[in-house]
Amino acid sequence: MFELKEIQAKSILSPCGIPGIDWTINPYIGCAFACKYCYASFMGRAVKKEVKDWGTFVFAKTNAPELLKQELPRKLKNKGRGQEIFISSVTDPYQGVEAKYKLTRRCLEALVDFDFRGTVSILTKSNLVLRDRDLFKKLKNVAGGLTVTSTDDGISRYFEKFAPPVSQRFEALKTLNRERIKTYAFVGPLLPHFVARRDELEKIFKKLRAVGVKDVFVENINLAAYIRQRLWNEMNGSDKELVKKFYLSQTKEYRQELDRIVKSLVKKYGLNLMLDLVIQHREFQKQPPKSLRRIDKLLSP
Fold first, then answer.
1. Is beta strand 28-29 parallel, antiparallel or unpaired with respect to 57-61?
2. Could you report the per-residue pLDDT of 83-125, keeping only the tens digit for each?
3. Residue partners of 220: CB distance under 8 A and separation at least 6
4. How many CB atoms lie within 10 A of CB 113?
5. What are the CA-CA distances from residue 168 to residues 130, 136, 154, 215, 270 (Å)?
6. Who contacts 282 (Cβ-Cβ below 8 Å, separation ≥6)?
7. Rounded distance between C-alpha atoms, residue 87 and residue 134, angstroms
8. What pTM did the predictor assign?
9. Which of the listed CATH numbers 3.20.20.70, 3.40.50.720, 3.90.330.10, 3.80.30.20 matches domain 3-298?
């Protein structure tokens, strides 16, 4: 049973723990896309939910736009120049309920009205992002990112249960690029079978280049204990070889081989590997690269 609840947030513009990002806006708690590998499943504890409940609830922060209007002048000096706001870090800002509540859109409107002069980076798995192209064009620096983990709608449906099919995400990137809105792709998490199936990973980079993407973040799968627990429950009865690859994906040897494959494919298709590395979630959080810069400085000209 799915639970949708309206709540009042105490704050909406929050300091961000992701290296290189200053602030984050999360208009919702929970995410209806129910991705099996999602690291944000720990957020359930904020609303007394367990990791296993991820994907079965969404709490909409209905006062988020009004809060943001109050917090922007108080928290951001000089119109936020040199600052980056990420929408969003622990939920998808364009999941289905956004069509009803328009909280992401109204927060973007607040940024436009404030004349925010920093960078806004967006990450989603939904082509609903196209609805807000008019607002992206009014912001000084904005980058629209879409997550892609495969070129196969069947694979994306298995791991990203209720997210829009990946084919729609590629089309969204194509549309954004055609309208000269800066884009990037987040290729992550890298699914464990890519070492054995280099051709499947190559299809992603080839397709990204074809739709006009130049810049990519790439991240290894994060199998922290709480994610492993949920994945194993979800994959009960799955192909044993696939489960074995998930275990192997955490070894140094696996990661080195996958890094080599990624860098060779990025070079082959003339893409910019942002940060110049394949991100390992926990290590990146603890010790980010010294050359870390905000997203507008990482994007290709």
1. antiparallel
2. 999 999 999 999 999 999 999 999 999 999 999 999 999 999 9
3. 188, 189, 190, 249, 255, 258, 278, 279, 280, 281
4. 12
5. 11, 19, 13, 19, 23
6. 222, 224
7. 17
8. 0.92
9. 3.20.20.70
d(CA 176, CA 144) in angstroms, rounded, equals 8
Q: Judge whether 183 and 213 are in contact, CB under 8 Å.
A: yes
Angle subtended at Cα 88 by Cα 95 and Cα 158, rounded to the nearest 5 degrees:
45
* CA dist., res. 173 & res. 180, Å (int): 11
- CA dist., res. 13 & res. 132, Å (int): 20
Q: What is the C-alpha to C-alpha distance for residues 266 and 271, in angstroms, rounded to an integer?
A: 5
Instruction: Count Cα atoms within 13 angstroms, Cβ side, for 210.
Output: 10
Q: What is the pLDDT of residues 35-63, one digit of tens each?
A: 988 888 888 888 999 888 999 999 999 99
